[in-house]
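Researcher: Before we compare anything, I want clean individual predictions. No alignment, no superposition, just each chain on its own. First chain goes here; please echo the sequence and then give the structure tokens.
Model: Echoing the first chain and its structure:
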Amino acid sequence: MLTRRTVFGAAFGSMLAAPAVLRAQVAVTGDIATILAGVSDFSRFVEIAQRAGEIDRLKGTQALTVFAPTNAAFDRMPAGLLQDLLGQSQGSQAGSPDQFRLKALVTHHIVAGVVTVQTMRGGQRDIPSLNGGLVRLDGTGSVPTIAVARPSGGPSSNFGTGVGGQNVQPPARIVLADVLASNGVVQGIDHVLLP
């Protein structure tokens, strides 16, 4: 018998080799938190969302879009940054997660409303994330991308650096598209957006 985890696991594994956007082929029921927990390659995002106290929001009734980084995306983060945020680094802050920055990181990957690949096609637009920063949705290429956006007239540091002054990574590509949930949609992305 096929379970949601088996179907998503097979679909997600095959998408890593595919250059195009993989669309979820299975009708899914459940909230965003349940959907994310059912896909093993989102386990790090789920862990960080739990530590940031954001799981209840992902279970709520507000329509949301979550641009969820894959586990491989977290592997691409600057060395030591994730460990520092989670309180797993050495030194005086060891064992003490940085709740403020964890929350900022998670909520920078969430926007109000439902954003599908189809609504992104053909243009660029900046929309506010739940942490107040802007994310740039770019649907002009063959694979839609998401990036940290610099506010018009705003400080260039928002575009050039991120959490802890690290360089912002390249735009994230959607690698698993339009996974529908009862309270929104999940878009799997291949890079972490550093606010």
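Researcher: Okay. Second chain, same rules.
Model: Second chain and its structure:
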Amino acid sequence: MLRQTILAIVLATTFGCAKQDQIVPSGDDVLGYEQLASSQGCCQSMASLNYQNVTEPGSLDVLLTPQSAKVALKTGRSFAQGIKLPNALGNIDLTVYSVIDKQVLVPTVLILDSDHQVVDVIDDNVIQHRESSLLYKSGFIGEYSVPNRYPDGRAPSYLVVVTTDKAMATSSEPMPPSEFALQSGQVSASDPFYSTNEIPHAAVGLVTLELDYQPTGPRLETEAQQQERQQVAEKYVEAEPEGVLTGEKEQAFNAAIERAVEKGQFEKALRLSKEAEALGSQSAEKAFVEAMKKY
């Protein structure tokens, strides 16, 4: 899973800027503050959020946009996106990553129980600003192990990605690239990205979640995955054992018996009747007798 995590971070670094451009609102409200402050669509309860399913271990992009649901918390109003945790054996190792570009969403991840009550929080004590390295650009990154069950008996069922008033009220200074990043050629020390300009914290943005766990219970799958699985399974359906008489074969025997009698081939008809009976036919003898009556 370490390799998957590295790949996910590299992809987030590569494509993060393009996705951020899609998220940033048009006009002057590039940070999403005005849309967030608007009373329109405010506010939803945790229970009424739309929760996205996790179908397999790996990375998941979470987008907070002006069209996202809004929630009102004691830490302030925020756009929000819900994730339904998968069934897992043991803990779920979670990596949270929000890349810094011209702006950044500083994420907080709420962990809810089955009643949509907050039981744990992954906040700025875990998700912190880290410098650019060989693998990823500077961003807010945190790693956390979500237990299968908490000491009070409650089990984590959902994640909700939000931000806070405290985070949006501050900004970040771009960290200089690490020596590894400079040696790799991924970044340049003269890159304007690493100027002294402060990076504003936004209400909108892209957060990548990497979930590492051992699945258990019923496996969730997308419609495309289900179709692919069924198509492959159909190729490996058990072949019909030779020597087993099916209803279709029994009817074919009876028809052949009738044709043989009609042509006066009585020995052939009798032989077919005996073969069918040997395979378990309950109607071959009757078919022979009835055909003889009609002859």
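Researcher: What stands out in the second chain?
Model: The two ends are 76 Å apart (CA to CA). Additionally, The first strand starts at residue 51 and ends at 53.
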